[in-house]
Amino acid sequence: MPELPEVEYASRVLRDAVVGKTVRDVKVLHRAQRRSLTSRSIARVRGARIVAVDRRGKHQLITLSTGDTIVVHFRMTGDWLVDQARLPIDKFARVVLELAGGGRVSLVDPRALSTITLHRQGEEALPALGPDPTDPTLHVDTFGAALSRRRIAIKQALLDQRVLAGVGNIYAAEALWLAKISPRVPASSLSSTRQARLLEAIRSVLAKAQQDTGRYRDDGEGRFEVYDREGMPCSRCGTLIRRIVQGQRSTYYCPHCQRR
DNA sequence: CGTATCCTGACC
DNA sequence: GGTCAGGATACG
């Protein structure tokens, strides 16, 4: 469940659970995570107090009293589980933070593709990222300039975190549908009018998702207009939604509303 | 630029 | 048994 709105929600859950607490111990339960979170890193975390939790794009940043920063990325299937250290561990727990006082936060991730890394103070903790689309100071011109430099399909440009941080496969498709833009047109070909319409659509789709996230857990039909709706009618025109593959990711779109 | 790779589970 | 999955990176 992790695109910007879901990660924003998860980071709030984490913040409420850990800020002000001391890390008693860290346990890495899967070899995939051990590659990035070494026993040397764990030794630096143990005993530190958690000062803050922030989000940037799909990354969560945990600031420690030592000045170090833990960066967590959920990739496809990561999430937090907050409970007590005395309870049985979740089947899919990959990394566990045990807190002083008996609290526990588990990084649960069936596919174990999540990453968790430790960065020293002053060291760059994040990869190169474009602005968050939710940042109100982001101006259309900045977004447009980033798009105009890319000849790749607009859908793929939206997935490039250096263009915008936090947009993933679902909301890229949803935003393009809302803006009535074909996922296959070159990013650089969008007029400034369409650039503006697209940024607005992205913001709208993310804001709506943010409202829904956490409020109704998951379930659900009817959450998306095009994503995972191949062969179903477009809610605007009735044309059947189509699925194509771009950069090894599924793209869903309405071939009528989203012509080039 | 496209392609393979990291993992595991769900589903056909 | 094969395919697909809300992500990103390393490679040729």
Radius of gyration: 20 Å
Poorly predicted ranges: none
**Number of helical runs?**
7
Strand order of the largest sheet: 1-6-7-5
Question: Would you tell me the structural class of the helices and strands?
Answer: alpha+beta
Describe, in plain words, how this protein is organized in 3D:
This protein has 260 residues and is α+β, with helices and mostly antiparallel strands. 29% of the residues lie in helices and 22% in strands. It is built from seven helices and ten strands. It has helices at residues 4-18, 31-36, 39-45, 140-148, 154-159, 169-179, 192-212; strands at 23-28, 50-56, 59-64, 69-73, 79-84, 93-99, 103-108, 115-119, 242-246, 249-253. The longest helix has 21 residues, at 192-212. The mean pLDDT is 94. The protein binds a DNA duplex (12 and 12 nucleotides) through residues 1-3, 6, 30, 32, 35, 58, 73-77, 92, 109-113, 115, 127, 152, 159, 161, 168-171, 227-228, 247-250.
